[in-house]
Structures are given as structure tokens and as C-alpha cells.
Amino acid sequence: VLGGTFGWKLTIIEPNGQVAETLGETPAIAGQDVVLSLDPKMQRAAENALGDRKGAIVAEDPWSGEILAIASRPTFDLNAFVSGDVAAINKYAADPNKPLFNRATFGQYASGSSFKPVTAAAALREGLYKYGDKLPCPARWTGYGEQWVQLNHETADLGNIDMRTAIARSCNSFFYELGKRLNDRNPDLLPNAAKSFGLGKATDIDYVLEAEGIVPSPAWKQTLATDKTWNPGDATNLAIGQGFLLVTPLQVANYAAALANDGIVWKPRLVIETRDRSGAVTKKFEKTVVGHANATNTELSLIRDAMRAVVADTDGTVYFPFRTFTVSVAGKSGTAETPSGDPNGWFIGFANFEAPSVAFAAVFEQFHESPGNFASQVAGTAVRSTLAAKFGVN
Description:
By secondary structure, this protein is of the alpha+beta class.
């Protein structure tokens, strides 16, 4: 679209250089202008917020699916490809940090606790949890017996808590129990809920290559070469966004948009329209609904309220980065385990809380945590900078 097409002209030339005859001709066609949905201020802020750390940030309009920012780090200098700098290109290709790899659309990560709103929605939808009821949040969860012991976040015992507190403080044990209830009724309930939010499949965004991710299920496990049995641990790991689950930041931003907009799942749009050289629109890309989350407006409203507590309550997992922020934000943190021991840190959500105009997902890859420096809070800080650019605040 941008490049247009080459033309050609075949002629017979006299010895003196004059054209004797034109045998055939096809005129060149100028390339078209491509109008993107990106918000330049948000895009710049997202890129700066990632800095030199490996990760991605995606922001989306929850009412249209338009991509407002999409950033991946580390990155590369496009001029190397324009000028044909082979040495620089080879250096990028050999870099173990993979600067040529678009983490926003091709990065596949366990979502960690940012998946918990899906589990909450499924449990509410199936009537397996009544909002306001309290469940225990022990340090060790043994709902499937001592052979399936699973630990709470930071091995904390929070006592009996409701869903709002469980989301705000990210209690794993609460969601292990919900995962068990769903799995015991039907092992496909939670996987199907995740798929209804658009996870585990390509978003079909135009002109951008992307990975599909994985939402594990009993049927999916049957496709593996070994370990084909769906175990209790598979169900409870999925309930907290671990195990075999893999998602892309683009998928997660689209899922966050569905949480914000009462369940609409969009085909994300990066290209709004194309125009010819005169400025006339040659193709318009309309907003497209591709599905609806399996949750009612009331159920999603309850989950949004709990996500607000993640940021607004003093004991919420991402309270600190937003404690002085003047825009109301709702979100969910995620700290996903990796083989290296350094977790991937997520923060997803939407703003503002009362009338969402942007949904977002940020992930920092294999972040080395230290006291007071947690992966999900660093992701939250990056999101704050990106949102500040949109809303014109500090």
C-alpha cells in the first residue's frame, strides 16, 4: 500500500538517442498514505516508559478496538534497513535480547494473576461464587489433597476474604478454590471463558503478524506427545494464569478492553484508512466486533469494582505507583513465574474507572525483583507514564 507499484516503458531508441517507437507502457502507481490510530503522545510515552528493559505496552480504545499505542523493547534503528547496513542488521539478528522480535504481538507469556478476572467472571457466571461471600485464603491450599499442594502469593495467610479483596491483594488460594469448583463441574468451563475474552487465538489485526497463544484445555492436552491427562493442577494453575497458558500483550489489551466495555471483544485496528495522493479515502477500516465475553454486565461491573481496589486501596498490589495520580485507574497486576526465576511483571486494566477511554496491557520480561522493586509495580509505573500522556496530567 505504501510502496505503490513500479511502472515500465518499452521503447525502440535510434542511434542518436531519440525514441523511435514506444512498444508498450504501464504507468507507475504512487503509494498511498496509511492513516494509523496511534496517539502520538501515548506512543512516545510508552516507548520511553519501557526504556532499555525487555517488554511491551499496548493501549486500546475499548469502544472501537483502535490501537492507541503499541511499543516493544528493545528496538532497532530502521535506518539500518533503509540504507542496507548489513553489519548493523546482522548485529540485530544475533543479539540475544532479540530487538527485531515484536514482543507486543509475538511475545507469548504466562499472564499470571492478570488472568484472575477471567476466573472470577466464570465463577460468577456459573453460580459457583456469590459476590460478597468470603472464602479462606490460606498460605497452603490443599483443596485437591496433599498431593496437589499449592502456595499463596508470598505464602501469606489472609484469612477469610471476599472476591474484591482477593483481586485487590491477589490471593492465589481464593482463585485455586474457584478453579477447582469450575473444574469439578466441567473442565472446559474456564478454558471456554478465557476464549470468550479473545485469549488463545489471533486477534486478526490488519497488516501485523501475531502469535496465537495457548489456552490449555483437556482437548488441547490430548494433542501433546506426552502428559495427555488433564490434571487438577492444570485447572488450578490456569485459574491464576500459570501452567500452559500463553498470551500476547495485544490479546491481553483486547481482553482488558472487554472488561471495560461490558464484554465486547473487538478486532483491534491499527489502520483507520488509506488515502491516495489527492487525499481521497481509498479504503476505510470499520470497527468490527468478533465476539462477546461470557459474562453479564452486572458480573463485569463487580469485577471492575474489584479491579479499582487494586489501585485505590492502600493494600492493593499496584496502589503505590498511582497513589498521587489524578486519573482513576482500575487494573490487575500479574507476576508470572519463568524458568529463569525472574518473573514477568504485568499490569492490565483501563482508565478512567467511571468512563473508560483506554484499556492497556504492559509486561516486563524476566524482571529481577528486589525489596521494594516488584515487577508488577514497575509495569504499573510504565502504564502511569503512558496514561499521563493521554490525559495530560503528571
